[in-house]
Amino acid sequence: MNPKWLQWAKALQAMAQTGLTYAKDPYDIERYTALREIAFEIMEIHSDADIEQIRAIFQYETGYANPKVDVRAAIFRDDTILLVKERSDGGWTLPGGWADVGDSPSESAVREAWEESGYRVRATRLLAVYDRDKERHGHPPLPYQIYKLFFECEIIGGAPTSSSETDGVAFFSLDDLPPLSLTRITPVQIKRLFELHQQPELGADFD
């Protein structure tokens, strides 16, 4: 769920960030800086983070504000899907992470699958593009707007291997999912990915 206060705070922060990118007049710079501080104060009041932690999160966010891109590899075997266990929270998710500059979205998904699971894969089609903020996805809130891209991939080599970010690699059926890392993936999304995999005539899901 994306609470209203967070929607307001993110909108104010984005306006301030974009304004500071283009503002030349000292008065405008002062006003956009103050607007950003208001956004940070809203986040502090309604969360467990103090304002210095929030400032640190956004200290490198410069330029025109736009959504971040999270890419995920959906790798199926028979009636199961590959998940990796995150060291950070102990939950399971599809291999993936932030898209890297210089890589196409599918290249990023393929690289993340290799790094987090040990499997060499090939991306075969785009299954879904989601706005993480939409309430129907059920993610806990984050201070950024994030677009999530899911690519169906097939294994072409490798073997299950843990990494610095993951300490488990396994296939699971839809009826026997482990505890998920809900900041990254939700049961509703996994169910939809199974449906898209099983019905290749369907186009990519979105929003």
Model description:
By secondary structure, this protein is of the alpha+beta class. The protein folds into two domains: 55 residues, no CATH class; 139 residues, Nucleoside Triphosphate Pyrophosphohydrolase (Alpha-Beta Complex). Strands 1, 2, 3, 4, 5, 6, 7 and 8 form an eight-stranded mixed beta sheet that branches. β2 and β3 form a beta hairpin. α1 packs antiparallel against α2. It is elongated and about 60 Å long. The protein starts with a helix and ends with a strand.
Element string (H = helix, E = strand): HHHEEEEHEEEHE
Strand content: 25-35%
- Gross morphology: elongated
What's the CATH class label of the largest domain?
Alpha Beta
CATH architecture of the largest domain: Alpha-Beta Complex
Using the coordinates shown, work out and report the CATH topology of the largest domain: Nucleoside Triphosphate Pyrophosphohydrolase
Secondary structure class reads alpha+beta
Average pLDDT level? 94
Classify the helix fraction into a percent range. Answer: 25-40%
The first-to-last residue Cα distance is 15 Å
Total count of strands: 8
Radius of gyration: 19 Å
Spans of at least 5 consecutive residues whose pLDDT stays below 50 are: none
CATH superfamily of the largest domain, by name, is Nucleoside Triphosphate Pyrophosphohydrolase
Helix segment tally: 5
Major sheet characteristics: 8 strands, mixed
Number of domains: 2
